[in-house]
Amino acid sequence: MLLAALFLRPMRRAPLRFSATVLGVAAGVAELVATLAAGRAALASLREGVVEIAGRSRLEITSPGGVDEALLGTLRTVSRDAVILPVVEDLVLCPALNDTLRLVGIDALVDGDARALAARRAAHIADGAAPSATGVDPDAWRDFLRGEGAWVPAPLARTLGLSIGDTLAIEILARPVGLRILGEFELPAEASAFASTVWIDVALAQELAHKQGRLDRIELVPRLGVSLEQLENDVAARLPAGVRVAEPAARQRETAGMVRSLQFNLIALSGIAALVGGVLVATTLATSVVERRTTVALLRSLGASPGAIVRAILIEAACIGCLGGVLGVAAGFLGARAIVASMRATLSAVVAGAPPTPIRFDGEFALAGFALAIVIALSASVLPVLEALRTPPLQNLKRERPVPLSVRARIRSLVVAIGFAIAAALLASLPAVDGLPIAALAAALCVLSALFALCGPAVDLVGRLGSRAAVWTPLRLACATLSAGRRRAAWAAGAVGVALALAISIATMVTSFRTAVVEWTERGVRASLAIRPHTAQSGVPIGRLHPDVLEIARTQFGTEAVDAFHTTAARAFGESITVGGSSFEIAARHTGLTFIDAGDKRARDGGLVLLDALHRRGAVVNEAFSRRFDRRAGDRIDIEVGGQSLEREIVGVFVDYGESRGLVIVDQSDYASVVPRDSPRQITVFLPHDADTQQARRELLATLDGRFAVDVLDSQEIRGYVMDVFENTFAITRALQLVASIVAVLAVSSVLFALVSERRAELALLSAIGASRWQVGASVCLQAGGLGAIGAIGGALAGLWIGFLLVTVVQPQSFHWTLEFAAPWNAIVTTPVAVVVACIAAGLWPAVRATRASLYADLREDG
C-alpha cells in the first residue's frame, strides 16, 4: 500500500517528471561512461595492444631511441633458453582511411608461433611449421621472406575493398609505398590492436622506416622449463648501459602513465555532471514528498512507521537509479562512438597518434556506471527523507508558510561556507599525489559545497526582500513562494550554480590556455615554410620525413636557410622524456623561443641563449622538464638515449606547450652522435623577408611531387594548425558543459512543479480576486528566473574560483605547464544571462499548469 500511495500512483500521474529525473541521472552516468569508453578506445592500440602484439613473448629488450641490431649476436648465448625475436614497429598513414595503421616487422623464420593471434586462429606467416601445415600458400611464404609484401587483417582488407594480390597504399617517412597483400588473417573476437596491424618482414620494415641496423625491441619467448626470473637476470647481465629488459606490461604501464593525468581530469569533470544529476534526484524526490504531504500524514495517522515511509522513498530512489543507470550505460557507449575522435585528438596532445580501435562494451565500465547511478540516487534521497520525517501525523492539509531563516541559521550557513572556502584554499596548496591533482580537485568540490551552503540564505534573502519591497503582486507572490519552499529552491539554485560553475571554470581554463597558446605561437612561429608528414583525422602528423626531403630542401633554399627538427624517446632520472635535435646556429638567428630561466645572463634573449648552448655544448629544456624534475639553468643532467649516456648542462629553460613529459633539445651535431640515422620530424625553411613564399612553396611541391607526400605550410597556416589542435583538444569539455546545463534546467523545472502544487490555493485565490492568467503565469516564471539568477551569480563566482584552480594548480600539477590566469569576461556576462533565460523557459510549462488549475477545486481543498 505504501509503495502504491507514495510511488506508483504519483508516478502514473506525473510520468514526465519521473522520466525527466531518470534522464537527468542517465545523462550524468552517460557522460562518465562515454569518457571512460572513448578514452580506452583511443588508447587501446597503444596501451592494451602492447600485450596483444607481444603474443607469447614474456620479456622484451628496449632502449630509448632503439636497440642496436648487433645486440642479437650478444644474445646468442641465451638462445638455448629463449626464442629471440627482433621487431621493428612504426605508425604509418593509410590515405584511404585518413588514419593510422601499425606496421610491424618480424623475422618469420624465428618468430614461430609467438603471436598467439594466428597459430591457433588463422593462417599466419610466422609459423615455424611448414607452410602447408598452416594453409599458407608457399609462394606467398617465400615472397614474405624476401620482403615483397604484407599480411593484413581480413576486416581491414574488407573495409578497403582489397583482396590477396592487391596493393595496400600507405605513407611512411612521407613516402607513398604500395605493399602487395600476400595473405589475410581473421581476428580473434577479443582482439583490438591486431585490427589495424600490418605484418611485414623485419628487413623490409627497417628499409621502409629508415632504421637499418636498429630495432625497436627484441622480444624473448622462454623455452619450456626456463624460469622467467632467471632468464631476465641472465639477459640483463649481457646488456650494455642504457638497454633494459622487462616484461611487455612495463611498456604498457608507462604508456598509461603518460596520459593518466589527462584522463583523471576528464573523468573528474564528468563526475561534476553526475553530481548535478544527483541534485536533480534530490530536488525531484523532495518536491514529490512535499506534494504528497497529505498522503504521508494520513499514512502515519493510520499507523505507518517513519521507517516504512523512508523505505518507500529509498525504493523510489533506487528505481530511479536503476533505470537511470541502465539508460546511462547504454547512452554512454553510444555516445563514446560520437566523441572517440575528439578523445583521440585530446589524448594526442600527450601521446602521438595511434591506430584507431572500435568502441567495445566493457562490463567493468557498465558496472561502474550502474553502481554510480544507484549511489547518486540513494545519496540524493537524504533530502526527501528529511522532508518525510518532518511531516507529522494529521497535518490535515496545512500549508507551509513563508518562515524566514533565523539569525542563527544564517550565521551557521555562513560559517559552513567559510569553512569550505578555507578548506579549498588549504587543499589547493597541497602537492600532487603520485602526479595527480587530487587535492586540487577536492578543493574544487569544496568550492561547490560552499556554493550550496550559501544558496539557502540567498533564497531566503530574495524571499524576504521581495515580500517587503515588491509592489507588483506576481513578484511578491513569487518571492513568498520561494521563501516557503526554501530548502528545495536552494537545491535547484545549487544545481544551476554547479552547472554554471562547470561552464565558467572550463571557459576560464580554455581562455587562459588559448591566450597562452596564441602568444606562444605568435612569438614562436618565425619560419617561412614548414614541411611535415600528412596528418591523420586526429589532426596529428604521422611519422617522420625521409632524409631525402631534407636534402631537397637544402638544395633548393640553401643549407643556412633550412633547419631540421629531430626527436626521439629518451630517459632521464628513470622517467620517459623526449630529446630533440636542432641546429642551434640556424635557430639562434630566427628563434621565437621565450626563455624563463637562463641563469644570470641574457635570460630573455633566445638567440643568445642558443648560441651560448652551442658554444658550451649544453642543452635547453622546456618548462615541463624543469618543473617535473626540479632542474634549473646551470644544473647538469644525464640522459639515456640511443643506447648511450648524454650528459649536458642546462643552459636555458623555455616556454613550451607541446611536450608535457619533458623536452631536452641539443644541437644537431650532438643529437646525430647518439642517434645517427634518425629522420626529421619537421623541416623549417627561413626565407628572406622579400622572398615570394608562395612561389617557393609551389617550386618545392613540384620537386617533391610523385616521390613524397608532405604538407608544406606557410607561417599563417602553421598558426592555424596549432589553433586547430587546441580546439580539438578541448572539444570534449563542451559536451560536459552541455550535459550539466540540461540537467540543471530539469532540476529547476521539477522544483517549480512542486512549488506550484504547494501554492495552488494561493494561486486560485489570486485568480478569484481578479488576477489574470498572465499574472499567475508570470509569478511562476519569476520564480524560475529568481532560481536561475541566484544560481547564476553564485555559479559565476564559484566558476571563476575553480577556473583559477584549474589554471594555476591543476595544469601545472598535471602537465607541468605554467599559464597566466585570464578571466573569460565574455562567458561571464553571456552564460549567466543564457542560464536565466533557460530557467525562465523551463518555468513555462509549470506556469501553464498553474493557469489551468481548477479554481473551485483548489479553494475547496484549501478551505
Can you put this structure into words, describing what you see?
There is one protein chain. Strand 17 (636-641) and strand 18 (644-654) form a beta hairpin. 59% of the residues lie in helices and 15% in strands. The longest helix is centred in the first third of the chain and has 44 residues, at 248-291. The chain is an alpha+beta fold and 863 residues long. It has 33 helices and 21 strands. The protein is elongated. The two termini are 28 Å apart. The strands form four sheets. A six-stranded mixed beta sheet has the order 8-4-3-10-1-11, sandwiched between helices. The protein has a six-stranded mixed beta barrel with strand order 13-14-19-16-18-17, surrounded by five helices.
Helix fraction bin: 55-70%
Structural class: alpha+beta
Task: Give the C-alpha Rg.
Answer: 33 Å
Mean pLDDT across the residues is 78
Distance between the termini: 28 Å
Largest sheet: 6 strands, mixed
Low-pLDDT windows of residues:
116-135, 394-398, 859-863
| Strand residue content | 5-15%
